[in-house]
Amino acid sequence: MNILLIAPPVFDFYNTPHRMEPLGLLYIQKALRNEGHRAEIYDATASGKVKKQQTPPELAYLSEFYEEDRSPFSLHNGYKRFGDSFNAICGHVSQNNYDIIGISSLFSAYHPDVENLTAEIKKVFKGPVVIGGTAVNAQKETMMKTTNADYLIHGSGTVPMVQFVKAVSGMIPFDKVDGLIYRDGEKITINEASKEPAWSGGLIPDREHLRIFRKKRLAKTVFSSGCRNRCAFCSIHRDNAFMHRNISHIRLELEHLLRTGAQIVDIEDDDIFSDPDFARELLDLLEHFHKSGLEFTALNGLTAKNIVPFAGRLNDAGFIKLDLSLVSGSKTVSDELGRPHGTYEIEQIQKTVKGKMDIEVFIIPGLPGTTFPKTLETMVYLYKKGIKCGLSPLYLVPGVPMFEKAGIPEDLRLCRGSALYPFSPEERATVASLLKISRFLNYCLTDKNALSSENRIYFNRSLSRNQWFKRSGEDKWLDSFRFHEKFQNPFKLD
């Protein structure tokens, strides 16, 4: 069969291009090709196109925060489409004779756009359309009631897509397709999900387009599935059993990535260092490939506690950047949320790596139990340690009990971090202010002249008067949004 797999464009105020390689679809593509099918991926974001869009009415309240601002404490400017248009995708579909189309939907907040794309595809394509991904995992039956697709798949899609093609061909019944969700008359049937991880069966994806990170070619991979942590705000442990790949299989993939021209391998796992024996064996392997020219990142964030015993080996293994998920600087909050480490582990890692690689620590302002002054205190602590701090504002994940209890909005677009939805208007301005402070602190860590510049003067004035300045395209300082929290100036904190 002739199958098209689509990684859709992203609609938001910002995007991270080097993290957009559609790894799940690459595994599915390889599995289908191994069965003799022609499987093509339309990677909509690979083009790098960015086009401003009309902000959806439900996100219009963000206009006071996301505006034109050329200062180093600016936020995002305008709602955009990252990737090809629906017209371009549908034009490609109509020009080719596909039998099946599969579309990935990885985040609930972007699923409304996936549904809009599906509706447009159905106008030019009469064959079966199936949607899969973590957004489906979160709202299976609810999504099936309203989807424009013919079928949904929950759980890992590699094995199910091979089975689905057989079902469409009449070789097996649809009730034998793992994870398939479909209508049987008025009834919605949800088959049990596949327990096989994406990389099962020794699959090594073909690579036809690599993203760029720090002017080098980057490819994503995973060395395990699932996570042993049980953080209250996360769905990873809900959707995937924890298991490691075989080291010999990882070796084969790294050899393949070297041949295809990858220079950096981004390890997307959530918990690769939780097993000491596996970690030692893996680091031996990474060190071997680093000598052949590969470098490594872990941009999805690693559990710091598990890294501490191995931090001294990370430089020899080729790591150039460590992203660590602190979540909260408060031990009480971390304990309540099931988060297994705090600032002590961050300090231990920093002391051990001795500046040989970049470290960025991510925290989540707005988590239950946290306070905004405490968040600022953690940001300043990291700044004084010379560590960049990434803020990921609290967002709601459908299907996670903590967030279901808080209430998932009917419009899923409000579930994205950039929507600042879980907050009151006053809190929203506070979180936006924390984001601006974080931006400026990170800027000061990379620009030696930042603290003596005009930018610092207007940053300090903004904090003292509880209203932000913004820098216009004409290089004029103008008023921006007000905030109510009395932030102590981070440059004056002990």
Q: What can you see in these coordinates?
A:
- By secondary structure, this protein is α/β, with parallel strands linked by helices.
- Among the domains are: 2-48 and 83-190, 3-Layer(aba) Sandwich (Rossmann fold); 210-392, TIM Barrel (Alpha-Beta Barrel).
- The chain is 33% helix and 20% strand.
- It has a seven-stranded mixed beta sheet with strand order 3-1-6-7-8-9-10, with helices on both faces.
- Helix 1 crosses helix 6 (158-168), helix 8 (247-259) packs parallel to helix 9 (276-290) and helix 13 (372-384) runs parallel beside helix 15.
- The mean pLDDT is 91.
Average pLDDT number? 91
| Apparent shape | globular
CATH homologous superfamily name of one domain? Aldolase class I
> Helical proportion?
25-40%
The CATH topology assignment of one domain is: TIM Barrel
- Rg, rounded, reads 23 Å
Label the structural class: alpha/beta
Q: Describe the sheet with the most strands.
A: 7 strands, mixed
Fraction of residues in β-strands: 15-25%
Brief summary of the model shown:
With 494 residues, this protein is α/β, with parallel strands linked by helices.
What brief labels describe this structure?
494 residues, alpha/beta, Rossmann fold, TIM Barrel, 7-stranded mixed sheet, 16 helices, 33% helix
Strands, helices and their partners?
Blueprint: E1 2-7, E2 10-12, H1 23-34, E3 38-43, E4 50-52, E5 80-82, H2 86-94, E6 100-104, H3 111-124, E7 129-132, H4 134-138, H5 140-146, E8 151-153, H6 158-168, E9 180-184, E10 187-190, E11 211-213, E12 216-221, E13 224-225, H7 236-239, E14 243-244, H8 247-259, E15 264-267, H9 276-290, E16 295-302, H10 304-307, E17 319-327, H11 331-337, H12 343-353, E18 358-363, H13 372-384, E19 388-391, H14 401-406, H15 425-446, H16 454-465, E20 467-471, E21 477-482
Helix pairs in contact: 1-6, 2-3, 8-9, 13-15
